[in-house]
Amino acid sequence: MGDNLILRILSAIIFGTLLSASPGLAQSLAEKVEICAGCHGQDGKPADKTIPIIWGQQAGYIYIQLRDFKRGDRKNETMQPMVSTFEKNDMLAIAEYFAQKPWPNLGQPRPPKDVAQRALTAEQSVGCTSCHLEQFQGASTVPRLAGQSAEYLAKTMADFRSRARGNNPGMTDLMLATSPDDLSALAQFLAGL
Ligand code: HEC
Ligand code: HEC
CA 18, CA 94: separation in Å to the nearest integer? Predict the structure, then answer.
């Protein structure tokens, strides 16, 4: 073993130790999630209604979305730069962090009877609850929809339909099989749950 190699190994060890010991270089989970509150809400209630609630969302689902934003499978100019520096372990930890928070109550009204009826008929013909489960609570990689912002729900279902949101072709097919009027009723119905 030449002196040169020993030196390189030694400096790699020292540099590695410095890196992991330096608080300035390794960002904590608390530091990583600080920025999220600016849009997703200090108390879990996003100020902008086109921004989704992430507090209390299913951990598996949050992780998949962060991963898809990072890969560019789900395109969004705002979210893509947020996740660009995250590694898989960061995204898993962040997902767990938000999933454990309580789901906030946006206090959205129940829709009028005719709208609710239209939503229920559409729900039954597609069978949304076979995946999103009873009361639309979701599980694992299937998101909770109950009480999500009506504006966001309407936007993201339209995005699936137009393939602007292309990260789940199955949801796109289901949205294409549902009329825009039915989707509008579903958004109001789900928000009021
Ligand atoms: C500058 C505003 C902004 C910041 C900061 C921000 N987000 Fe977002 N986030 C958005 C918007 C807007 C969307 C909706 C994108 C869309 O319509 O497809 C979104 C969507 C999401 C979604 C998808 C939720 C769902 O129901 O599909 C997750 C998960 C998410 N953000 C997590 C985070 C995390 C974690 C952070 C912090 C690291 C963060 N966001 C920071 C604006 C922001
Ligand atoms: C075959 C299973 C299945 C069925 C049936 C289904 N969904 Fe989904 N849905 C999913 C999955 C999985 C996702 C997460 C997609 C992803 O990872 O981006 C999703 C995502 C969504 C989202 C996005 C939520 C968010 O926070 O961005 C909405 C809204 C939605 N579904 C509404 C519906 C409605 C309304 C119906 C019935 C008309 C329905 N889904 C039927 C599996 C299903």
Answer: 25
113-191 shares the fold of 25-99: yes
How far is residue 21 from each of residues 11, 88, 91, measured CA to CA in Å? 15, 21, 22
> pTM for this structure?
0.90
Pick the CATH number of 25-99 from 1.20.1530.20, 1.10.10.10, 2.30.30.100, 1.10.760.10: 1.10.760.10
- Ligand 2 pocket: which of 132, 135, 161, 176 to mutate (most atoms within 8 A of CB): 132
Nearest CA to ligand 2 atom 33: 128
pLDDT more than 70, % of the chain: 87
pLDDT score of 18 more than 70: no
* Model confidence band, residue 11 (pLDDT cutoffs 50, 70, 90): low
- The CATH fold assigned to 113-191 is Cytochrome Bc1 Complex; Chain D, domain 2 (1.10.760)
Query: 190: closest CA among 94, 99, 130, 123?
Result: 123
